Structures are given as structure tokens and as C-alpha cells.
Amino acid sequence: MKKVEAIIRKSKFDEVKKALHQIEVNFFSYWDVTGVGNEKQGHVYRGISYSTSDIQRRYLVIVVSDDFLEKTVNVLLETASTGNVGDGKIFVSDVIEAYRIRTKESGSAGIN
Amino acid sequence: MKKVEAIIRKSKFDEVKKALHQIEVNFFSYWDVTGVGNEKQGHVYRGISYSTSDIQRRYLVIVVSDDFLEKTVNVLLETASTGNVGDGKIFVSDVIEAYRIRTKESGSAGIN
Amino acid sequence: MKKVEAIIRKSKFDEVKKALHQIEVNFFSYWDVTGVGNEKQGHVYRGISYSTSDIQRRYLVIVVSDDFLEKTVNVLLETASTGNVGDGKIFVSDVIEAYRIRTKESGSAGIN
Amino acid sequence: MIVQEQEAIDKAVEAITGDMGALWITLAAILVFFMQAGFTLVEVGFTRSKNSGNIIMKNVMDLAVGSVMFWAVGYAIMYGSDLVGGGFFRSSPSDQGYFFFSADDWYNLFFQTVFCATAATIVSGAIAGRTKFSTYLIFSAILTTLIYPISGSWYWPFDDDAWLNTAGFIDFAGSSVVHAVGGAAALVAAILVGPRIGKYVDGKAQAIPGHNMAFGALGVFILWLGWFGFNGGSQLAWGGDDTIGATSVIINTNLAAAIGAIGALFFTWARYGKADISMTLNGALAGLVGITAGCGSVSAWGALAIGLICGILVVISIEFIDKKLKIDDPVGAISVHGTCGFVGTVLIGLFALDGGLLYGGGAKLLWVQTYGSLAYIVWAALASFVVLFILKKTIGLRVSEKEEVEGLDIHEHGIEAYPEHISQDK
Amino acid sequence: MIVQEQEAIDKAVEAITGDMGALWITLAAILVFFMQAGFTLVEVGFTRSKNSGNIIMKNVMDLAVGSVMFWAVGYAIMYGSDLVGGGFFRSSPSDQGYFFFSADDWYNLFFQTVFCATAATIVSGAIAGRTKFSTYLIFSAILTTLIYPISGSWYWPFDDDAWLNTAGFIDFAGSSVVHAVGGAAALVAAILVGPRIGKYVDGKAQAIPGHNMAFGALGVFILWLGWFGFNGGSQLAWGGDDTIGATSVIINTNLAAAIGAIGALFFTWARYGKADISMTLNGALAGLVGITAGCGSVSAWGALAIGLICGILVVISIEFIDKKLKIDDPVGAISVHGTCGFVGTVLIGLFALDGGLLYGGGAKLLWVQTYGSLAYIVWAALASFVVLFILKKTIGLRVSEKEEVEGLDIHEHGIEAYPEHISQDK
Amino acid sequence: MIVQEQEAIDKAVEAITGDMGALWITLAAILVFFMQAGFTLVEVGFTRSKNSGNIIMKNVMDLAVGSVMFWAVGYAIMYGSDLVGGGFFRSSPSDQGYFFFSADDWYNLFFQTVFCATAATIVSGAIAGRTKFSTYLIFSAILTTLIYPISGSWYWPFDDDAWLNTAGFIDFAGSSVVHAVGGAAALVAAILVGPRIGKYVDGKAQAIPGHNMAFGALGVFILWLGWFGFNGGSQLAWGGDDTIGATSVIINTNLAAAIGAIGALFFTWARYGKADISMTLNGALAGLVGITAGCGSVSAWGALAIGLICGILVVISIEFIDKKLKIDDPVGAISVHGTCGFVGTVLIGLFALDGGLLYGGGAKLLWVQTYGSLAYIVWAALASFVVLFILKKTIGLRVSEKEEVEGLDIHEHGIEAYPEHISQDK
Ligand SMILES: Nc1ncnc2c1ncn2[C@@H]1O[C@H](COP(=O)(O)OP(=O)(O)O)[C@@H](O)[C@H]1O
Ligand SMILES: Nc1ncnc2c1ncn2[C@@H]1O[C@H](COP(=O)(O)OP(=O)(O)O)[C@@H](O)[C@H]1O
Ligand SMILES: Nc1ncnc2c1ncn2[C@@H]1O[C@H](COP(=O)(O)OP(=O)(O)O)[C@@H](O)[C@H]1O
């Protein structure tokens, strides 16, 4: 099992979600985070113009079985991209075990 | 050391927290996330009835030493469960190193 | 590649961020979480005095290449610390792969 | 000058003064109307965000239902005649009959309607976060149709049939008639509904912080504002002595609120080591409720004394009800309106310039004030108990545990009040 | 008594009554002014947080621009003379001329100004979340300078040149003149601007929940409050019969709002199984808009009937416009102001005590009300269409997709309305 | 007609007109009272959420403390006699004596009390987010007991002892007496307290965005609303010429606010490329402060000129104070009330219809206005400096670094204002 963590633009979320559903990745969790990176966003507040690299992003955690990994990553790379600086990152790491709380099943039965 | 990530119902949090304290897991972090999964929640807004699988959940991160892993997972499986679809998931993964910032201790001294 | 997760005091964030920039760690994501630990905070609400160990913390995720790991951790240990209970933790774990969505690059090119 | 002339002038003056009085009462009623928004904000602010939509609905609906029912039935009962039970119930409707219609008394209906809505809305705060919406609607309808109008009929028609009027009871704008009645109903309701899940753990009261102190504060400012209409308008006239009366009422009202807030602030500061925000806000309200009965009969000094007593007392009362009686009242409605309504009424017996104990008037007034106010509390508590008990045995008072834990908004109304909101409520 | 004396008295009474009327109108105007805050809160509350700052700016600016333009030009047009087009346009300015200056009519300018701002602000809600700020400013300026003043000139100067006045049309406080005009402009604007991204997916309407029901509710309370000034103040006098008139208007207004909320509540409850918060709030507004035309000519029963019809109708209308017509109106402005403004005007033909069909007055009034109201809608729709069409072809109506998705606040104004806010909007 | 008769009529008219005036002043005072809520919301909205509870407490308490102290001492000083220092201080109390008691002047006390509270509350915004609560309370008490009443005594008793009245100074509703005084005190306080941590990094001003623009906007609407009472009520009468006076004041007030917002909008839009929300809101307030002095002496054109100048100036002033002087004023109180209060007072010298330079009145008025306003600023600055300097050396002005960084709410009051709130403030 792998954990895919994707940090994407909030504006791309709807598309990404739809695409994930299409490849039958129907289980994940997400929340909003502030990202620091290359992209800058211009602001003005009370006469002070400033540009900040602290930009709101959406953080997705998707735990998938190994055979889903590739297509999940590919879908994310496809649909989350705009081609502009600030599209975000995907990180993949190992998960040792997963449990579904309701049934107490573990292993790949635990993730979806 | 292992990292236990649990995605649970917000309504079960108090119970879970109490149970964790009882087995002396007194250190963890949590935040609220939106979960996509099997459970659906009915909504009505201005005449549009819709059901969404985007439901608020609580995300817990608990880093434990290996010998605490089993009981931590068991406690979570016990107390977070209602038996209904949507009880959530537990993921376990490896942690290479942990540090307590205050003392700069690392290893198992770093986690609790 | 390594994932560094740091749970720090919100009040230390500005300093930490500056220090990270100085060692050229310019990419990370953060959000606010509630931490449960040793520190207690006193509250009063409508005549009920209580002390809670649920304290707001900031959660940082920084994926770095292996050769950046040490200095990243050191900078965090230095700048996030006040010496008082509640300074927080750092966890290090493995990342298998990283992608930059914009360019679809992977590997260390994917992280910064 | 010929008498005739003076009479013509007097008649003209009287007509205009009447119109000016109507203008003041109408504007005062509009201010009192706005108190609904104040109550809503205080209740929303002092409770958790998962129930905010439900609180909004309860407050909008008790105003809506109360407006219709008081027009249809309540007014007729309140100003009716033909007494039963030694003056306790009026069996025939007022001159207007049911479904109020009058050529020249509309402003009075309006003023009384918004008072009625105030009484109803007090209950909503005390049972926030666990009560069935349908049950609340029914109870609120009965309160505005019967319970409150009967209360009013004991005193405010100011006729010989109004037994408390005859007894010499003083309640200028309703510390007892409105607030203690609402507070007593709130007490009974809070007991019967029971505390929110998680409020008492191992018998110890837990803090369940409200989610928005800014809403709470704005609500208190709006209530304070509206109270100038509530008390000042109860002069029921403007012009000459009435101008002096109404404006001195306003000063008393403002001083009592101010010192109530000051009292609660320093009392909590000394007691908890922190200047408690929501208690200070409650302190201002306590001063306002307390002075409502006596604002027309005490001096500025009396107003300060009453306000200060209520501002401190409300803190003690809230703690006592919460920790000792273990009755869960999220916004302090029972203490603010019940306790301070009662105490404010009784304190007139001490501070009334005319008849107060401290001004050499003896204990008579004190006694009348005490039993009058108690009569209101007993009536409201009994009547509420009967209604709520029946509701409990039939459709039930409380939502299911699941609904309560996940929030009334999503279950009763299909949507959160703040759908984008990410919370950290514990 | 000598006639002379009586005359002197009468003159004094008249002067004072005039002053009292001015006081009432001024205070009513202040209440109507506050409705701007109500509109702002409703619109902010019923839309997503990423556009809140933009909505605030639109509401502040239509008030600001409207205040200046109505003073400079609008008033002159509205009360002008020298008719063109069979009474449809007034070609020469009012006695005051442009840039209003009068020794004794300031309160009237103030009252009319805040009405004008109300008409303008209705549009802003219907096109929230995707419209260019600059475009809105221009449109709003034209609406307050020309479109609305011309509407007003058809009826409110109450002179023989006001063709709808001559026709016997009744619109006491502006169900048509203000609300249907605003609603029709909102309809055209919403069509031309098009729906928000994500509102219709595969042809199906999606829910885009507003982010703060508490703001929405506070807004509705403020609007309800302001409406007492809106309708009551339209009596344009106080004293004697006018006191009775204005206060009966206030009662009618309150009853219609109350029953409108009740109607929407139970209708949605039955229909969706949930008591819909934002619809209930809209129901109260629907009752208010509906009764605005007739509040001076119907009984309390008529007010209840009109309020109830509008409270239910608004739900149906919102659904119809949203799901069938697929016009995206985030706050329901078209239904609340347009539909209920029209229906409320027409219903006078049934319920007017003097001339209504149900009171034996025949169908004549019904017919006048219908074509009068339609004339307003057609005029506002046409004029808005011309203006917006030109704007569309020149500077454009809509922000870019990127700006819309990321939020107007950050792109048009450089900062979020809630910079600390972490959202979960979907 | 016999003279006697006319006299009887005149007497009746005078009495009624007096009552009508009292009604207007009372209602105006109620509107001004509500400005406290407006100030609170603006301050809460324009600062970070971690200090919202503290700001609420400061605003509630300066109203509460001010209400009591002005009644007890302030009024007596303001309307006292027996001059010291060439008219600068009144050493013996007013006729009412301390602890105001009067049979017929309550509405005046009320009106003056809410003005006093306004002056006090201005300071709170400028020092938000780092000031000790206890220190603020003491300073606020002294301001309402002494500093402001002495300011008032220079002009508003309108007697020969009021030296600025004698000098021909014009400040209708207090651009200088209230706002510049508050602004100068705010300036001194902000300097002495020092900037918030993180406000200046390497000598460069940083943006610290306020957390809730919707609160800010609602606050501005409430202030704008209240200002109709602030300025209109300062006519201090109603009826005949006073009706014309008060309503023309209201029109001037509204126009100045409107054009102030418009000015700030377009100025910031041109300057920063974005239509700045909080600056536009400040622009409306700037127009209101600016016109406060002259609303009774300028034409609508003059009001527009003053409003526009202030609306643009406030933006420049905020930038200057923030970036050049490096004084941290989170809400712009110094610029809005201080700068625009001063400039608005001085501009009367140009725009007064009677005596203004542009209307051929020569430079005399300009000169009186300038030194009069400067006298207020110097007085308020000096007095505040003395008080705050002593407080700094004794109990201290500022909270500890830890308290400031973690938020005043949790440390001073034991609870956050939004305990469920998850923030992303940086
Ligand atoms: N090494 C990293 N660790 C954690 N989050 C990262 C890392 N690098 C990038 N991110 C996240 O990805 C977002 C986008 O990255 P950014 O550098 O702005 O654009 P791009 O990836 O297109 O170069 C950042 O705002 C941040 O949230
Ligand atoms: N593979 C996954 N990756 C990340 N989060 C998941 C995954 N599967 C489930 N979750 C989280 O668990 C929650 C509950 O899952 P759900 O499928 O609704 O119920 P159940 O686990 O009882 O079948 C989801 O809302 C989501 O937050
Ligand atoms: N084992 C753990 N797993 C996850 N988070 C932890 C863990 N231990 C500590 N934390 C986080 O670190 C924060 C600080 O820890 P705390 O015990 O209060 O102080 P200290 O580390 O100085 O002893 C906690 O509030 C919590 O958010």
C-alpha cells in the first residue's frame, strides 16, 4: 500500500476529484493548507502592497494499493496541472498497514 | 517508531481521546479534514436536495514506539467504531526518527 | 528523499520560516492543528476554570532531499525552541517518490 | 382670555401630544423589535457553530409566530375583562376582540407584540443545542398565545381588574411580566430538556465555549440599544412630564447597564483572575433586566445600586445554576432574565423614591413586589411545565443523540450555518 | 369663539404637524438607510467567502454613488415636468433643478435617496460572484441616475402627469416602483452575466451553499427593521389620521413578514423534509416585498393573505428560476423582489378594501395593478438590457475564469475578506 | 385677535416644539449610542482574531465606564463655570453639580454621554493588539472624566465663558471637540505603546490584515447610520427652521460620507491597481468625520468638497503615519479622526457659506478654525501624554511579548473569541 499526498491548487480540486472517481479512487481525505513555494501572489492591504509566497492549497491524502499507484499519480499529474508555477507536488510513501474501523478489516480491504 | 494516522468521526473524538489517555497515549495532534468515502450525507440548500460524500472527519496523527503500536490501533478500532458506514480508517507507517524540540532528544525519548 | 514533519508553536513560526529560507529550504506546506501533549493552558469560560492540553500548534510538512535533512532538522530544533514544555516534535520519514505537477518531473527535481 | 379659547388650544395640544406619544411608542417598538436580532446573536455567539442555524430559525420563528398569535389571540386575552379565579384569568376578550382591529390603537398592538416576542425568545437560549425544532415551535406558540398574555393581564391593562395593579405592584417595563416570566419558562424548559451531551462529565460541569464572542458582543449592543425603547417606550407617552419621565428612564437604563457590566467585569476578574468576556456581557444585560421594573421609580443612584447588584448577582447565579443545580443554560438566560428579573422587581421595594424601604416607605412595597414577582414566576413555571410535560410525553423534547452530536443544523435544516467552516470544537 | 382665533390655532397645529411628519420621515429614512447593511449581510451570508469583500464593496458603492447621483440628477428627473412619450419621460427637471437645493424639503430628498439606493442594491445579489466590479459600478450609477428615477416619475410625484397615478394605480411604498424594478434589472443582469462556474453541471443545478447563515439572518432582521421605515415612512406624514395610517401600515408589514416566514418554513419542511433556513429567511423578505404596495389599502387579513402567498411563492419561484430557467441568482433577489414585487402589486386588485375584487370592487383595479406593474418590469428589463448589453460588448460583464475560481476578493481588491479563514468550500 | 390669545398659542407651540426637540435629541442619542457597536465591529474586523475578545471588552467598558463617569463628574465639568487659566479650565461644576440630577434635562445628559463615549472609543482602535487591559481602563476613565469634558467646555456650553465660542469658532457636532481630541489621544497612545510585534521588519511596514472585512463593513454602516444622529442631533432642536437645519445637516452628512468612499475607492484603485476594501470603508468614515464640524454651515457642494478631500487625504495620511512615521495604528483611527477631524474643521474656513474664504468672508474664520482645532489637538495630546506616561512608568502600557504573540484574548480573558476557529494568520 502506498500513501499519495498531493498538494494542489484549490481551483483544480473539482477536476481532480472527478478524475479520481473515474479511475475508481473513491476514497481520500483532504484539507486546506498554506503552501510556501515558488509562486507569489500579490496583495494590497491598507496601502501596503506585498507579495507573499504563502498561498492556500488543498492537501489530499490518498492511500492506495500498489497497483493503483501509477494511475493515481498519473491522473493527479494530468488534472491538477495548469502549467503555471504553483501547481503543486505529489509525494509517495509507504504504508505498512491499513484498517477499516467499521469492520476492523486490514490490508487492502482496509483502504477502500 | 510508527506513525498511526486515524481518520475518525468527529462525534467519536471525545471517546477516542479518553481511551487513548487510558492506555497512556498522551501525545498526538489532530485537525479536521473532509473525507471522501462510502458514506453519504443528505443536504438541502435553497430547494436543491443533494447528497455528498464530502463529510467532515477528524484526522489524528499519533507517533508511537513500536511496542505501543498494537494497543493504540486496537483502542482506535474499538472506540472509534459505530458499525455504520463512515467510521473511517487507520493507516500505519514507519517513522525514521523523532525529536523533542524542547530538549533536542531523539528516538523514543522524542515522542513522549 | 525525506519527509520532515514538525509540530511547533504558532508563535515561533515566523522565526522558523525565516531560518528555513536562510538555509534555502524554500518549499513546504503548513496548517494549524490542535496538539495534545504535556503543556497545559488555563482557560476560564462563564465561571468554569479549566486547563486543557488541547493547544493550537502549527504543523509543517517539508520534503527534502537526503543531504538537506540534517540542516533542516537542526534549524527546526534551534529556532522552534523556547525551552518550555510544549515546544513540539519533529518526525522524519521516508518518501519514495516526489513529483512536481507543473513539469511532471520526479525525484529530487520534484521537490524544489 | 375667554375659557373657550383656552379649551380649543388645550384640545389641539392634547391631540398633538397624543400623536407625539404615538410616534415615540412606535419608534420604541421598532427598537424593541430589533432586540430579536440581539437575542439571536447572543445565542448564536454563546453556543457552538453546529447549532447556529437552528438558533436562527428558532428566533425568527418565535417572532413570526408570536406576531401572528398575539395579534390573533394574545392581545384580546391580555386586555380582556370578565374575570375568573380571583382575577387571575380574563375570560372574555378585550374590546378589540380576537384578531385585533382598531382604528386608532395600532401602535399599542405593535408595542405589545414586540414585548411578547421578547418573552418568547428568552426560552430559546436556555435550551439551545438539543431541543427539537417542532417542539420548540409549539411551545413558543402557546407562550405567545396564552402564557405571556395572561401574565400581562395581571398588571398592564392598569385597570381595577388587573389584580397586581390594584395591589400597588410596580413593574414599569416588565422585569417580572416579561423577563422573569421568560426566565421561569426557560428554567423549567432547561430542566425538562436536560443538559447537552458532554456538559456534565462525572458530575462536573464542563465549559462548552460559544463559538463567536463578536456576535455575542454585537448582540449585547443591540439589546442595550433596544432596551432604550423597551424601558423608555413604556412611559407610553411623550411630552411635558412624560418627556422628563421617559428620558430619566433612559438614563437609569443606561446607568444600570453600564454598572452591571462594570460589576461583572471586576467580580469575575477578582474571582477567576481573568476579565471574563461573556460574563461581562451578561452583566450588562443583567443590569438592564434588573432596572426594567424600577426605571420609572428610582433615582440614578437607585439605578446604579440595582444595576451593580444584578451585575454581580448574575455571575453568582450562573455559576450556581450551572455547577450546583446542574442545569445547563448555555447563554445564562435563566440567570439574566429570571434571577435578575425577580431581584430587580424586589429591589424596588428598597429603592423606590416613593414607598421604598430606604426612603422611609416601610416594608409594604417590598412585600408587594416580592409576592407579585413570585406570582409571575410560579405561573410561568407551572404553565410551562404542563405544556412541556405533555410535549415530552407526546412528540418528545429532545433530538436524538446522533443529531445532537453531529449538530442540529445538518439534521433539522439540511445544511450547516457555516458550510465552509473548519472547526476545532472539542 | 372668533374665527380668527381658530385660524391661528389651526395654523400652529399645521406647522407642528408638518414638523412631526418631517421627523417621522427623517427617522424612517434613517431606518431605510440601514437596509443597505441588511442587504450586504444577506448577500455576503448567502454566497461563498471568497467573494465577500467584493459584495461589500458593491453595496457600499451603490449607496455612495446612488447618494450623489440621485442628489445631482435623479431627484430632478423623478419630480420633473414637461412630458415626452405620453407621460413616460419627464424632459425638464423638477422645481429644485439638478443638484437638489431646497430650503424645506431636505427630508424628502433623503427619504427618496435611500429608496433609490435600495433599488440599486437589489441587483448586486443576483450577479454576485462573477461580475466585474467596474461594470457593476457603471450600471449601478445609470440605474440610480436614470432608470429608477424614471420609474419613480410615473407614479410618485402623485401629480396629473404621473400617468400611473392618473390611472388609479396603487403602490404605496414601492413593490413595483422599487422592488420589481430592481428585480427585473436583476433578472436581466443575471441572464446576461451567466451562471457562476460550477453552478450547472451536465445541465443540473448544483447547490453552492452560502458561507454564513448568521450574517444572512442578521441581514434579514435588519431589513425587516428597516421595512418599518420603508412602508411606514411612505405615509409621508404623521399626526391624526396619518398616525393611524402609518401604524396600521406597520402592523400590516409585520404580519406579512411573519406569515411569509411561516409559509416558507412549512412549505419547505413539507417539500424537502427539512426546515430550510435560507428559504425561511427569504420567505420573510418575500412577505415584506409583497405587502409593500398594499400595506396602506388592505386589512390585516389582506396582509396575511398577501404575505402567505408571497412566502410560499418565493420558494417556488426560486426553484423555477434556478432549476428550470437555469438562471443563477445566488440570493434569490429576482424571486424576492421581482416575483413578489409583481404579485404583491397585483394582489391589491383582490384585497384592497376600497376597489378590490374580493371586496366587491370589480376587476378594474386588478387590471390597472397588472399592467402598471408589468410596465415597470418591462421598462426596467429593457433599460437594463440596453445598458448591460453595451457594457458587455465594450468592457465586458464578467471576470476571467481564473479570477472567478480563485475569488473576486483577491483579484479585484487584493485581499481576502477573511484572511485567516481556512475553508472547506467544495 | 387679542394679544393674550396669541401668547397662549405661542406658549403651547413652544412647549410642544421643546418636546419634539427632546424627542429628536433622544432618538439621535440612541443612534449615537449604536455607534459603539460600529466602532467595535470596525476594530474587531480590521485586526487579528486572536485579540477580538479584548477589543470587545475595551469597547464595552469604555462605554460603561464613560456612562458612569460622565454622569458623575464629566457633565459637571463640561458645563461648569468659574474659569481658570484664561478660560481653559472650569473650576466649579455646572448647575447640576456632580452626579447629574435635573428635572428636565435628562435627554441632554444622554446625548452628551454618548458623545463622550465616542471620544473614548476612538483610542481603543489605535492601540489594539498590544495594550494592557487594565491600563486602557484607567486611561479611558480619565479621558471620559476629565480630558474630554474640558474639551467640551471650551465650546459647547455656547456661553461667554466658552472661549472658543466667543472666538467665533465653528464645530457643529465635533470634528475637533470629539474626533480630533480622540485622534490626538490615539496618536499619543499609539506612539507610547509602540507598534505590534512584526509590524516593522527591518524598518519596513508590514501588512497585518484584519480578519473580518464583513464585520468592518457592518461596523461602517452602523457608524454611518449613527452619524445621522451625531450630526443631525447636534441641531439640538426640531421644528420650523430647526427641521430644515437638521435635515440639511443629514443630507450634507450623507453626501460627504458617500463622496469620501468614492474618493478613497478611486484613489486607491489608481494608486495600487486594486480597489482597496478597508481604505474605501475608511474613506466613508473620513468624509463623516470631516463634515461633522461644518455640516451646519456649508452647502451640499461644500459637503461634497470636504468629503472628497477627506476621503483622499485619509489614504495619504494612513500611509504616511504607517510607512513614514512608523506609528502602528491598525484601524487608521489617527488618520480618520485626527487628520480628518482637523482638516474638516479648518475647511470650514474655506467653505462656510457665512464667513468662508471662498464665499468672500476673508481669512478670519480660517484662522479661528485653525487655531481652535490645534488647541484641541494640543490639549488632548498633552493631557494624554501625561496620563499615559505616568501609567507607563507605573503599571506599564504593554502586555508581555508572550501574551501579545499568543493573543490578548487567551491571556487577559481566558478564552479565545472564536474558540472553534482554525486560523492561517501568518
Ligand atoms: N518540498 C516540499 N514540501 C512540502 N510541500 C511542498 C514542497 N514543495 C512544494 N510544496 C507545496 O507545493 C506548492 C506549490 O509549489 P510551488 O513551488 O509554488 O510551485 P511549483 O511546484 O509549480 O514549482 C507549495 O505552495 C507548497 O504547498
Ligand atoms: N484510502 C483512503 N485514503 C485516505 N482517506 C480515506 C481512505 N479511505 C477512507 N478514508 C477516509 O475515511 C473516511 C470514512 O470512509 P468511508 O468509506 O466513508 O467509510 P468506511 O470506512 O466505514 O467504509 C472517509 O471519509 C475518508 O476521510
Ligand atoms: N507522539 C506524538 N504524535 C503526534 N504529535 C505529538 C506527539 N507528541 C507531541 N506531539 C505534538 O507536539 C506538541 C507539543 O508536545 P508537548 O508534549 O506539549 O511538549 P514537549 O514536546 O515540550 O514535551 C503537542 O501539542 C502535539 O501537537
Automatic annotation (TrEMBL), chains A, B, C:
Q: Which domain of life is it from?
A: Bacteria
Which keywords has UniProt assigned to this entry? Phosphoprotein
Q: Does the keyword Metal-binding apply?
A: no
- Classification via SUPFAM superfamilies: GlnB-like
What protein name is recorded for this chain? Nitrogen regulatory protein P-II family
What Gene3D superfamilies does this protein map onto?
A: 3.30.70.120
A Gene Ontology CC term for this entry? Answer: cytosol
Recall the GO molecular function terms of this protein's record. Answer: ATP binding; enzyme regulator activity
Q: Which InterPro entries match?
A: N-reg_PII, N-reg_PII-like_a/b, N-reg_PII/ATP_PRibTrfase_C, N-reg_PII_CS
The family assignment reads: Belongs to the P(II) protein family.
Gene Ontology BP term (one) = regulation of nitrogen utilization
Positions bearing O-UMP-tyrosine? 50
Q: Which Pfam families match?
A: P-II
From TrEMBL, chains D, E, F:
Q: Which residues form the Ammonium transporter AmtB-like domain?
A: 23-418
What keywords were assigned to this record?
A: Ammonia transport, Membrane, Transmembrane, Transmembrane helix, Transport
Q: Which residues cross the membrane?
A: 21-42, 63-89, 109-129, 136-156, 176-193, 213-230, 250-270, 277-294, 300-321, 333-353, 373-391
An MF annotation (GO) of this entry: ammonium channel activity
Q: What compartments host this protein? A: Cell membrane; Membrane
Record carries keyword Membrane: yes
InterPro entries, sorted: Ammonium/urea_transptr, Ammonium_transpt, Ammonium_transpt_CS, NH4_transpt_AmtB-like_dom, RhesusRHD
| UniProt superkingdom | Bacteria
- Enumerate the SUPFAM superfamilies for this protein: Ammonium transporter
Q: How does it sit in the membrane?
A: Multi-pass membrane protein
What are the recorded Gene Ontology BP terms? Answer: ammonium homeostasis
Chief location: membrane
* Gene Ontology CC terms: plasma membrane
Give the UniProt family note: Belongs to the ammonia transporter channel (TC 1.A.11.2) family.
Entry protein name: Ammonium transporter
Q: Which organism is this entry from? A: Flagellimonas zhangzhouensis
